[in-house]
What does this fold into?
Amino acid sequence: CGAVVMAQKGARPYDRIGEQVFAKVDKINAELFTLTYGSIVTQLVKDYEDLGEVNTQLEKMGYNIGVRLIEEFLARSNVGRCADFTETAEVVAKVGFKMFLGITANVTDWDAEKKEFSLVLDDNPLTEFVELPESYNKLWYANILCGVIRGALEMVQMKVEATYVKCVLHGHDASEIRVVLKEILTDEIPASMRDE
Amino acid sequence: MSVPYTFTIVGKNDNPLYEAEFASGVKAKEQAHHLSQFVIHSSIDLVEEAVWKSTAMNLKGVDRFGKSYISSFVTAGHIKFMLLHEKKEEDAIKGFFQDVYELYVKIAINPFYQLNTPITSVAFDSRVKKLGAKYF
It folds into this structure.
């Protein structure tokens, strides 16, 4: 009965799975986390000076985190293979975000082909207490999350692009990340191992 | 005719970080404004001495100037909140200082705010003014 429920699209169970996993993992102090991330961003801003470059660097850092994070995620959450991209979206939003950030995101705005969606975040521990100075309009402060999503999904054979389209620090009501599926990667046997 | 309350935040090098005035229904005169600033700054020396005599952050009344009192609250990082006021309302002032302190901590936690620099946040300004209206 549990298996049938899990196969349904957009099923409620992911919320519950997310909470169960969140309860099991170790926690750290939220302020320490926020302050650490804050000092990473300000240091990057000082080092690179160009805000576009800072966005790129944050995304790269996120990518490196994501490729490693996925192992921890799969080991702890025991979530099975997703049937399709829509299920992937729900798992990322309800289980992934819950497990690592303690928040759940909402999946919205699917395109007709079910290859793109938006992740809407109402609050985000990374951005607590942050106020962007006026000249920082180009900066996507929590851009590291886009990289994490890209890195993690690449390890499970999905090549995606994730970009911020709205951010609470820029005055919007909620933050929104647009995730676009570029291609499904198939494992290629390396040339050296192929039988010619 | 009452002089409005003048609230100033002073940094570690006696540099002003923030200023606000709360009039209890009276408009501030330009001249009175400069006088308030001068009075507050002249009492900073007394605050510096008083800081080492007490372990509390709220130093309450530290100085007098004519009919006005000056109360002070010094944070752990030696950022001084100074208030110039006419009436001795210790409780209201204590509450006010506590609430402003909380707002200040939130500003300090912002990674983009450099400590000891002027506070330019509009949100902070409007919240402090609301607190002023609430307490005085």
Notes: Chain B has a mean pLDDT of 87. The longest strand of chain B covers residues 58-65. Chain B has four helices and five strands. The CA atoms of residues 4 and 23 of chain B lie 4 Å apart.
